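Task 17 of the worksheet. Students: predict the tertiary structure of the chain below and write it out as structure tokens. Keep your answer in the requested format; marks are given for formatting as well as content.
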Amino acid sequence: MMDTSGGVILEMEWLNQPLSIGQRVRLTGAGTVLKTGNIFRIGVDGLVVDDDGVHPMTERTGAVFLKAGRIPIQVEWFNGTGPFGLEVSCEGPDLPRRRINDSELFKGPRETTSRVNGLDYRCYEGSEWTELPDFNGLKPVKTGTVDNFDLAVRTRDEGVGFQFSGFFDVPRNGIYKFHLISDDGSRLSVGEPNVQVEVIGQSQLPAPHQMFIGQLLDEAEDGSWSQIEGKVTQVWPAEEGLRMELSVGLARMEVEVTDKVERPESVLMNSLVRVTGFCQGACNSDGLKVPNLLLVPSRRLIERVAPPTTAGVTNTNPAGLPVLTTAVEVHHLKRAEAQLGYPAKVRGVVTSIDPGPPGFTLQDSTGGLYVQGGDPVRVGEFVEVEGVTDPGSFAPMLRPSRINRLGEGRLPEPIHPAWDQLMNGSLDAQYVEIEGIITAVAGDGVQFLTHGGTITARLQSGLNLEKMERFENTLVRIRGVLLADWNAQTHQVKLGEIRIFYPDVTVENPAPADVFSGPYKTPTDLLLFDPQASLFQRIRMSGQIVHLGKEVCFMMAGTNGVRFVANKPGTLRVGDTVDVAGYPQLGGASPLLRDAVVRKTGQTALPEARRLSPDNLTSAEYDSTRVRVEGVLTGVRETGMELMLEMQDGAQSFVARLTGQSEFPRSLPIGGRLELTGVYAVQTGNQALDHSISTFELLLDSPANVKILARPPWWTLRRLLVMVGMLACILVIALLWITQLRRKVEERTVQLKEQIQKRQSIEQHRAMEQERARIAQDLHDELGSGLTEIGMLATIPAPAGNSNQHLDHIGDRARRMVTALDEIVWAMNPKHDSVESLGSYFCLYADRFLKLANITCHLKGTLDLPGTTLNPIHRHEFFLAFKEALTNVVRHSGATEVRLSIRIIGNRLRLSLADNGGGLGSAQPTPGMDGLANMRTRMEKLGGRFAIASQAGRGTTLRFYLPLN
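Model answer:
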């Protein structure tokens, strides 16, 4: 909101009525006011003091206008780790600062008129708190009342928080200042906001202050009602409205629209817009305040000045090709497309003039473009070029048909290219600025040491190269138009070579009078903190040269290794002690000094080589130092002036290089064990990131660095391969013989299996025939004889007066036939081939058979038998022996009771039949006792056993044992 004195930004948590832009309002009431920059927050939950965060005992103060009476007060506090504390004090009208007394604090419900002294508290516990949590979303671990803001009721010292609430007795109206001291964070809220908003009229919006993106702001402009123009480079939705990024050149700022924007993002993107709103400033990296955020209250305050400048068809020519309107559209054409001659109309600033083939470079907001031919123009002019595209020798360009001069322009902000952009030529015709050190001036160009590496820059038009020699070893910034250097036949870029038109050289750091005046550092010093350290700070080191390569030299500074690249060839030798001044580059296995100036200081013996074992053979810390390694020679290769020894030490293989020798040693035995002394050179690896490396080489200086420790054993690799080949042949023959033998065994196994199956089939068939013969015999014996007897009895006339006895005899014979048939059917049925079925049938048969003879049958124990399968023949034979035992009891024992027991003992079925008859005089069979002999024979035939126990006058016990397996 604004008045005649200026404008402010107010944030209020609530409004008693809706507001609209242009209304004049009046704010009245009491509430806390917090200021952040030029934003005022009114009535934020009665917040007076905010001392949140993790910190030691700290005091914060806040003031608020209070009316007399009892008003709500709340203190939130937490402690993360370490010491803790909390104290609340107050001062007011005619009242000195004091700790709030117990008598000034009250608790109880808000609607109660009579309250008692004290405060309600809630205690919470948590972990890793770095700021006050939302206590309302947590469950307290302890609650109660206290007299004051007292931490004594805490549950623990760390990870604990409190919420004290109650009422504070305000003695009179006035401004009260509260002091909050705490460790860690705390927050004090007093009273409730009661600010009222009253609409008192309507007026026109004030005229905005014209401002520009990137300008410097004074105090009056920060927070002012302003109008700014810029190009929309980004658009993204916000919770309530829209956010945009505006840019002018490289300067940028954000715009926040606080109401819903209906127009789509695609309408605003890349458009030139004029926006009105409140401007908030922020300090840039130089500490200067510039426009940072524009708060726009309505979408109606956004005005599009120009349509988007994106790639697209603005119009077409008669051939149907679209007219290109930006430099980037031309550059994105492929060579075949540019050859078609697309029509183009591009506006931009002239950035350089090419005096060779007449031409110039033009740059708009999307990039740079080369224009060949046309009317003369000046650097800095703003022109419109109409023409057609041409593939050019390297990048697409324009051939103009008309050039319209539109007035004076301003050179664009230069691009700071990365190393890959300098190498690949993608910034051809772009206005750039490159920072680096000129290390040499030769011909029409300079050697330029940049952050990425060294390039050759040819400086053309407007610069005297003879004067450039005074810039050697100087840190400069060269600004101009970059043109790639290419091969006219292949159209390929020349790596590491560029051209710069109209170069402007600015000295950043003059060359020192003495290159060795830079700071002296050791390799370990390079890893220490140094605020002046940079790629372009030349440093000095001292050491001893241990190996001279074609481009890179190796030296040892103490026990550490260093590499350097000399800017000029010299007469250095291995063993020289030197001072080296160069530009450090870290990131390799050891430090590298580029563009180094070397000064010889003496000559001394080389340091003792460090002996390496297979366990510590690969480590970046050995890079550029002298080492001694043992290994087995696995191969020798000679390439020109270099001898390469392929070595193996344990599981690690490496290469040793011997260079610059006219006579290489010829008697090195393949497979022999050698001791090599040379310089350890890591091929891949970064000492700063990983001490473990993958490959390394050993650099040797003379044949004296090679020592033969042992000749190869008789078991050379060649002999070993021959023996392995012979063994392999024998093994193949043995495998073939084993395969043939296995095939024959399999064939014989199949034959035996077929014979066994055939024999089993014959035996099964024979057993079936025998079983069928037995069944037929039983049917013939039992049924045939019975039917014959019944037939005979039926034909014989019954004796006079005795017909009933005759019929009883026929019926008895028929019943015996039924019983016999039942036995045959039971024996034939396969479902009765189990021990359980056998036991049930035996009990039923014995009960029925003995009942006819008026003999009582008792089952001894429980009948709990398994369902084990029995051979049907064995089952039938066992039944016949049991039947014969029952027959003997009925005919010969004279018993009145029989006790039957069937149980499993081990893997045998035991059947016991005991009677209370007269018994036998001897358990041994005697002539005439064929039944006992038959039973014994039957059981032995089944692989079982028969036993008899008898005493005269005390009955007889028969036991049958039938194996189940």
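Marker's comment: The first helix runs from residue 265 to 268. Confidence is low (pLDDT under 50) at residues 310-314.
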